[in-house]
Amino acid sequence: MNLNATLFFQTLVFFVLAWFTMRFVWPPLTKAIDERRQKIADGLAAADKGKADLAQAQARISLIEASAKSENHARLADAEKQAASIVEAARGEAESERARILAQAKQDAELEVGRARQGLREEVASLAVKGAEKILQREVNAKTHAELLNQLKAQL
């Protein structure tokens, strides 16, 4: 065999193999590479979108937490105000009840004082009659002198 012919056939086989590879092998490989590249790009985009969604979700969570805290503080303040108003109402009711009981006690005391005075008047009148009886050494009839005793009671 001739070296030139060998080189010619090797070159021809090389070009045929190169043409075959470029025509039938290379397109599916580039297509697979492009698909893989696209999948990787889609995955990276999805990861970026996931990061953005996560950041948005965390921002919403922080807003929800802040609103929940402020709402909780508002409810606590309302509860404290309501408790204070209930205590104040109870205090007012207790004060009015105290005033009513005090007025009733004063009225009862005045009645007792009046009864005691009336009792003392009757006792003083009885003692005055007994004293007058002893002074006069005779019996004084209380029934006949009732008017005199009533005037004496009124003066006392």
UniProtKB/TrEMBL annotation:
- Record's subcellular location: Cell membrane; Endomembrane system
Q: How does it sit in the membrane?
A: Single-pass membrane protein
Q: Which residues cross the membrane?
A: 6-26
Coiled-coil residue spans: none
One Pfam family in the UniProt entry: ATP-synt_B
Report the domain of life of the source organism. Bacteria
Keyword list (alphabetical) reads: ATP synthesis, Cell membrane, CF(0), Hydrogen ion transport, Ion transport, Membrane, Transmembrane, Transmembrane helix, Transport
What protein family does this chain belong to?
Belongs to the ATPase B chain family.
**Subunit structure, as described in the record:** F-type ATPases have 2 components, F(1) - the catalytic core - and F(0) - the membrane proton channel. F(1) has five subunits: alpha(3), beta(3), gamma(1), delta(1), epsilon(1). F(0) has four main subunits: a(1), b(2) and c(10-14). The alpha and beta chains form an alternating ring which encloses part of the gamma chain. F(1) is attached to F(0) by a central stalk formed by the gamma and epsilon chains, while a peripheral stalk is formed by the delta and b chains.
Chain's role? Component of the F(0) channel, it forms part of the peripheral stalk, linking F(1) to F(0). The b'-subunit is a diverged and duplicated form of b found in plants and photosynthetic bacteria.
NCBIfam families on file: ATP_synt_b (TIGR01144), PRK05759.1-2 (NF004411)
Q: What is this protein called?
A: ATP synthase subunit b
- Originating species: Advenella mandrilli
